Amino acid sequence: MTLICDNMAGYLMSKGEIDCVIVGADRIAANGDVANKIGTYTVAVLAREHNIPFYVAAPISTIDLSLSDGAQIPIEERDVREITHLKDIQLAPEGISVRNPAFDVTPHRLVTAIITERGVVQGDYRSGLAEVVGNG
After folding, report:
1. What is the pLDDT at residue 119?
2. Do residues 75 and 105 lie in contact, with contact meaning Cβ atoms separated by under 8 Å?
3. Taking the model in full, what pTM does it have?
4. Which residue from 35, 64, 90, 93 has the fewest beta carbons nearer than 10 Å?
5. Are 57 and 51 in contact (CB under 8 A)?
6. Rounded distance, CA 128 to CA 7, Å?
């Protein structure tokens, strides 16, 4: 097992050096769409491009069956100063428009399987997630 930074993923995938991707989740919608830290969607797209399995490992507490899909997951926008400043030093031009989403949503079609403490869900996420949540 080797730990890398996320911006290295595409290069290493293209070299055949990555066997699978495993990420966490902050929220999982009923259809299997997954919200996680920003950049997760990009890694999922890279994995699909390189035919690498993309797994989500998360506790059932992240599954929210009241949300039919990822479009309903609220995405937090963080303070713009996280991007425009380093401590008290301004790095970006005054008045520039800034977006700073903390999460992104990976569509279920890019997810190979969702791994929970109550089992692995693959394929039909809607019924599979309902089953693992109901097994409590």
Report:
1. 95
2. yes
3. 0.90
4. 93
5. no
6. 32
